[in-house]
Amino acid sequence: MGDTMNRNHLLEQLSTQTFDLLVIGGGASGTGVALEAASRGLKVALLERYDFAEGTSSRSTKLIHGGVRYLEIAVKTFDRVQLNLVRDALHERSIMLRNAPHLSRPLWLLTPLYKPWEVPYYYTGLKIYELLSGPQHLGRSHYLSPQETLKRFPEVQQAGLKGAVAYQDGQFDDARFNLELALTAIQQGAVALNNTEVTGLLKREGRLVGAAVKDRLGGRELEVTAKVVVNATGPFCDTIRHLDDPQAPPILKASSGVHIVLDKQYSPPDTGLLIPHTEDGRVVFVLPWQGGTLVGTTDNPAPVSDHPKVSEEEIRYILRQVQPYLGEIPRPAVRSSWSGLRPLVSRPDADTAKLARDHLVQESPSGLLTLTGGKWTTYRKMALDLVNYAVRRFGLPAGESRTASLPLLGGQGFDPGGAERLKAQGFPGDVAEHLHHAFGSRAAEVARIAAEGHAERLAPNWPYLEAEVLYSTRFELAHTPLDILARRTRLAFLDTQAALAAIPRVSALMGQELGWSPQEIANQAEAAQAQLLQAI
């Protein structure tokens, strides 16, 4: 991608151009806004304080879904807001699956049932869920007998099983999807930088005209001018709002969602579980993901922090919820855990578990546009609403929206048979499948780097290669070992010990590529180890 990946060139562009939109925040909503605006011909700058998807957007349940729980609440309470949210999300689900076929897939989910009345109840509910998706529906939901349930998901507890209802939703790699949103925005003309912090907002005669910015890698400070400033910082949106107006009342409540990862033996590779009952009335998913089993999530009020920690009680809570369905799982079976903060539009005295995941576009008196709330599946609709508002309100010269049919970078020219070609080149089956699904149409370039002497695995039993470290450093704006281990690959989210063992080699490879001194390589490795042990 040439100069588009040259950091000094990007910083120079930031300081010498006037942008239509300056987007603060490099998570799902921020990169979604950047792509929506840039693809419509607007001049866009995107700034992320840490790495793309370092926070909430890499810590989801990895489902592209309408929200079965929200549908249940909508039906029980006649809540049209919740119902519309489910319908919109199911529409967006089909767009995400189509635009990133390498990073997403349909996934069968079973709801195991142990009481006779549950069979008609959940069958009817999931049929309504299917009908709400309209022509974009995936597989037809259907009832499975106890024998069929155990054949599809052998780990399910057999005693008292009355069967299951099977339905389909989507699954994806959230961090790489987020990254490709940023890279596709760059391809469409945006200037996008991670590790670039907004330290202040610039005003002229009471109106926002840009932001003061600091490059967290090189220390350079600069000013970026823009016609419109967008606050898309997720759980941190009130922090940016207070830079604009220290007296602004908060508009968010944060909720913590904890997930754990178990060995792949706890789930078949093509089927997950929706556990419909927990001790506090929520749902939990058990999902095959990237060679492991992902289990979650919690939903509890939480303070806003950069890298929220997971408590031992939260891990044991999740293990307790799955015990009636999968049997007792020993604590040492947990390979990794993490917490993500959901940004929920605040309603006084509302339980965070009952807040609708709808989104908000708000304009301050100075012109700051804040986009917050929502969820991963509706990122594109959120971006569309924000950009449409900005175009109308500020008279920006934008064309029609194209993102409903705009493939992400690795989805452009994607060949479903790419994994077989990689196997024919001599790559092991798991590596070929991984490269094909992580990089899509760009996998051939990673394979070329591997063929030049970098085909070694970063960790035994995992498909990640040294070549990916070099590729991501050169072409995917990776600047630290955890950028590679947590978000360009997903090893840190899958196996903490394997990721810790890989840090020295990843640091050395990045150091060779970026010209780090031996001391800088050691410092980077030490910092990555400390962060990984703390909270990824």
Automatic annotation (TrEMBL):
Q: What EC class is this? A: oxidoreductase
Write out the similarity annotation: Belongs to the FAD-dependent glycerol-3-phosphate dehydrogenase family.
Alphabetized, the UniProt keywords read: FAD, Flavoprotein, Oxidoreductase
Q: Which residues form the FAD dependent oxidoreductase domain?
A: 20-378
Q: What is this protein called?
A: Aerobic glycerol-3-phosphate dehydrogenase
Q: Which domain of life is it from?
A: Bacteria
Q: Which InterPro entries match?
A: DAO_C, DAO_C_sf, FAD-dep_OxRdtase, FAD/NAD-bd_sf, G3P_DH_FAD-dep
Keyword Transferase on entry = no
Alphabetical list of SUPFAM superfamilies matching this protein: FAD-linked reductases, C-terminal domain, FAD/NAD(P)-binding domain
Single Gene Ontology BP annotation: glycerol-3-phosphate metabolic process
Residue ranges of the Alpha-glycerophosphate oxidase C-terminal domain? 401-520
As cofactor, the record names: FAD
The species this protein was found in? Meiothermus granaticius NBRC 107808
Q: What is its EC number?
A: 1.1.5.3
Molecular function terms from GO: glycerol-3-phosphate dehydrogenase (quinone) activity
